[in-house]
Specification:
Length: 898
């Protein structure tokens, strides 16, 4: 036997190795060579089944992007060549193909050919010359190294969706086959020959642009469009930006004889046997288990599914790519419910980093993956990049088309990171341009100029029972300069718990009154508004109005007021008889009219939505706005998210405030804590006990304030006076409890999280927080700020039985630090900006990709946006028109960035 076909095959394989596994050893690629080679090989072979496996491996070769995986396929083909011929005449050729010197010293990336001249392809009679055939690239070429190489490292906190292990179904009984040994030839029945890859027709982009409805895409009708709408997908743009929530890593290609239990791998093999059987009783709605026996020349293994559609898609004798977790049953390796797809198709579900998208009823993972693959193919080729080329190159970012392709179907983790960074940069860049535009528009409006010199503030400062710290005086100077200008103030005031922000805000309110205008302060809760009304009322009670000499009128306006009281307050406000209005969201209702509002203070900024702040700002001539945040925000983050606000920080604590000592204890140490609280009460001090719930739930997942208040009063502290405070109480009830606690008429206040802010009782020295693991770090720090406001040493006790996870980090961090800004950074890194910052209520459009903790990308985007905005603030230049449209689209859902 001449074995000419097999000798020719080995020469092709040798040349393919030398060229770096780029599928260019023969014209048209190894898959085309297989269809021409098979007939000759079958005529010469002693083992036709081995020839069929070789053809299957050759057909699947172009679908594999990884050079190392391609090398392993060639090794399999060489081994099957020996089985097919059982001839010694090929020993020399086979040894040469497998010899190390026949292989390239390094495996260059497929998408970046080496510049060295290529050896000529092996000539095949009857084929056109190489220059007559346009070979499509195996994958999309990578951009020049100058554009993408060595991108800045992403931030360590959640830089992109995690690569995770695929979810598998519960184990089920496997059929009782005899053991499938590896390395044994398959049955001599010749299977049908696998088909050669068919040329794919490029997907056509629908008309109407990216904002065209998804029904313009092939195979998406009204029914599927309605299902996609539940995922927030209404347009082609929405579909392209429906990003994976994670990825299943099926990029590891292995042969069956090298598989190990528990691996996530891809196997290329031929289906030799396919059968189905019923599991369970037909009367009980049984299931059908599909079993396939797959071989790749090195061995065989079972694949099992409980999906009846699998039986329709699999065909005996055809080659497929299978991806999943290697499991075992009775000592045999198998895969349960693996993903699979024919080799003649481009890999979407197997053999790569496979995207996992959010789903909804009626949408399957495979269907959505195919739809997005078609959309990406149709749109990313000619997609216009709105990001200016200079900005993209300066930041070494991928082109938008490539970023979208790689975020959905990445060739490797490095390209995935680069794609994630590009899309994150886009969101930060557009976000910052919108904020800068808003700042300019607001600052271009006129505002009432207020006199705010030392003489104006002197009476107010003299009436304070304490002296301002140097930090408070510095910040007050910033505010005075803003009030004296012709542009409206827009300033963010930051400070740790107890740093004295309220005193500075009161000075701003005084300046408005001293100029004959009105002021308002808006708080997120009625309890905090009531606290402000009491404290400001007491503060200004001894200060006559600078212009009239009459008492300064401070009025509370909340939603729970009686109708008659509310109507009277509204009339007085409109007539100018009220100098300072203190309230909640009730202040911004349409029927609330100010005679002349000059200064507006928004307390607890992160609790207010954008619409509420915008409504307060537009009560007449744009007032001077001071925004206070009791939750410290890392400066780099604040500069970006609050880019339209000037920022002042009170970084000094008032004299006499001693750091609160914090201790974490477990629930079996309650008696020790109760004894300590009793001793503090006996010496005249007061205490808070905070619970995560108001009342017990059916699940019993935590202690509740109502039940615990009764138990503590009756069993633990029968001789002490205990009060109860929670958000479900009526306003009058809450007011009465708070007043009693402030006057020292209660020893212990049992409460829920309503005491997080706005409670100022200097005599309180202990706060006990039950179920501390249920609160965020910033919230725990706020609770701790309720004590330590007087001259006595104060204590914060955390009760938690947490043993793992981020709860441990939070509790340890709170024990070790009293620095609110340091804790804020830790909180940001652990919880992410969504929970930390409340982005949904901050006026910021929803971010699809970017994470506010990715400070490296955030800062780069902010710097680039500032430089571009300085050159073209209106984005009017021709090269910025696409960018302007993108900014408008991005900000369509947000009324006001501040």
């Amino acid at each position: 036997m001449s074995n000419n076909a097999f000798s020719r095959l080995l020469k092709v394989l040798s040349l393919e190795r030398k060229q770096g596994y780029r599928n260019k050893a023969v014209i048209g690629g190894l898959d085309k060579f297989a269809s021409r080679w098979e007939a000759d090989a079958q005529a010469e072979a002693r083992n036709p089944a081995a020839v069929s496996e070789i053809v299957s491996l050759l057909l699947g070769y172009p679908a594999i992007d990884d050079p190392a995986a391609r090398e392993r396929i060639l090794d399999q083909i060489v081994r099957r060549t020996r089985d097919a011929t059982a001839s010694e005449t090929l020993t020399t050729d086979t040894a040469q193909v497998l010899a190390p010197e026949a292989r390239p010293a390094a495996l260059p990336p497929i998408s970046r050919p080496a510049p060295a001249p290529e050896p000529a392809p092996v000539p095949v009679p009857g084929e056109p010359a190489a220059e007559e055939i346009a070979l499509p690239p195996l994958s999309k070429p990578a951009p020049p190294a100058s554009e993408v190489s060595a991108p800045p490292e992403p931030a360590p906190t959640r830089p992109m969706p995690a690569l995770s292990k695929p979810e598998t179904e519960p184990r089920a009984s496997a059929p009782n086959h005899a053991a499938l040994s590896t390395g044994r030839a398959v049955a001599p029945v010749r299977p049908p020959v696998a088909k050669a890859a068919e040329p794919q027709t490029p997907a056509q982009a629908p008309s109407g642009g990216l904002d065209a409805p998804v029904t313009r895409l092939p195979n998406i009708g009204v029914t599927f469009a309605q299902k996609l709408a539940r995922l927030g997908v209404n347009t082609v743009r929405d579909l392209l930006y429906l990003l994976p929530r994670r990825y299943d890593d099926y990029s590891l290609l292995r042969t069956i004889d090298t598989l190990e239990y528990g691996e996530e791998v891809t196997v290329i093999g031929t289906v030799w046997e396919l059968k189905a059987r019923t599991i369970g009783d037909n009367r009980d709605g049984d299931r059908r288990m599909i079993t396939a026996v797959v071989g790749d020349g090195t061995g065989q293994m079972e694949m099992t599914w409980f999906n009846p559609y699998v039986e329709r898609r699999l065909r005996a004798g055809r080659a497929f790519s299978f991806s999943g977790k290697v499991d075992s049953y009775r000592g045999r390796l198998l895969m349960r419910n693996p993903e699979f797809e024919p080799l003649e198709k481009s890999q979407v579900h197997t053999g790569r980093l496979v995207p996992v998208y959010p789903l909804t009823q009626g949408i399957t993972a495979r269907w959505l993956r195919r739809v997005i693959r078609k959309a990406v193919d149709a749109w990313t080729v000619n997609l216009d990049d709105f990001l200016p080329e200079a900005v993209r190159r300066e930041n070494r970012l991928l082109p938008l088309s490539e970023a979208l392709e790689q975020i959905h179907f990445p060739v490797n983790q490095e390209r995935l990171q680069a794609a994630h960074r590009r899309l994150s940069f886009d969101e930060f860049f557009i976000l910052q341009l919108g904020i800068l535009g808003h700042r300019k528009r607001f600052r271009d409006q006129p505002a009432r100029t207020l006199r705010a010199d030392d003489a104006v503030f002197a009476p107010f400062l003299a009436a304070l029972p304490f002296s301002l710290t140097a930090a408070q005086r510095r910040v007050l100077g910033d505010i005075a300069a803003d009030l004296g200008g012709s542009r409206p103030m827009s300033r963010l005031l930051q400070g740790d718990v107890g740093s004295g922000k309220t005193a500075v805000a009161a000075a701003a309110l005084w300046a408005a009154v001293a100029n004959g205008t009105q002021a308002a302060i808006m708080a997120p809760t009625e309890i905090l508004a009531e606290q402000h009304a009491r404290s400001f009322g007491a503060l200004f009670a001894n200060l006559p109005h600078p212009l009239t000499g009459q008492p300064i009128q401070v009025t509370l306006l909340t939603g729970s007021m009686r109708r008659s009281e509310r109507d009277a307050a509204l009339a007085a406000l409109a007539a100018g008889k009220i100098d300072i209005a203190v309230g909640t969201h009730a202040l911004i209702q349409e029927n609330v009219v100010f005679r002349e509002l000059a200064v507006a203070v928004v307390d607890e900024q992160h609790r207010f939505g954008v619409e509420q702040r915008a409504a307060l700002r537009h009560k007449g001539l744009p007032p001077h706005v001071l925004v206070m945040s009791a939750t410290p925000i890392p400066r780099s983050l604040a500069l970006t998210i609050y880019g339209d606000l000037d920022i002042s920080v009170i970084d000094e604590m008032p004299a006499g405030r001693t750091p609160v000592k914090t201790k974490w204890l477990t629930s079996d140490q309650h008696e020790r804590v109760y004894g300590f609280i009793g001793r503090q009460a006996a010496s005249g001090q007061q205490a808070f006990i905070v619970y995560p719930l108001v009342e017990e739930t059916e699940t019993g997942d935590g202690n509740a304030a109502v039940q615990e208040h009764a138990r503590l009063q009756n069993e633990i502290f029968p001789n002490l006076r205990l009060g109860l405070l929670h958000g479900r109480m009526k306003g009058e009830e809450k007011e009465g409890v708070m007043r009693a606690f402030s006057r020292g008429e209660l020893d212990v206040l049992v409460a829920t999280s309503v005491v997080e802010v706005g409670i100022d009782v200097p005599n309180a020295t202990v706060i006990l927080i039950e179920g501390a693991e249920r609160f965020g770090l910033a919230q725990l720090h706020q609770f701790r700020g309720r004590v330590g406001r007087g001259q006595h040493a104060s204590y914060c006790v955390l009760i938690s039985d947490a043993t793992e996870g981020e709860s441990l980090k939070r509790l340890h961090a709170l024990e070790q630090s009293n620095d609110g800004f340091a804790l804020a950074q830790i909180d940001l890194e652990m919880r992410g900006p969504g929970d930390f910052f409340g982005a949904r209520q901050s006026g910021i459009p929803a971010l699809r990709t970017a994470e506010l903790s990715d400070l490296r990308t955030l800062e780069a985007a902010r710097s680039s946006a500032q430089r571009l905005f300085e050159r073209d603030p209106q984005l009017e230049l021709p090269e910025h028109r696409a960018l302007a449209a993108q900014v408008a689209t991005f900000w369509a859902s947000a009324v006001d960035a501040s």
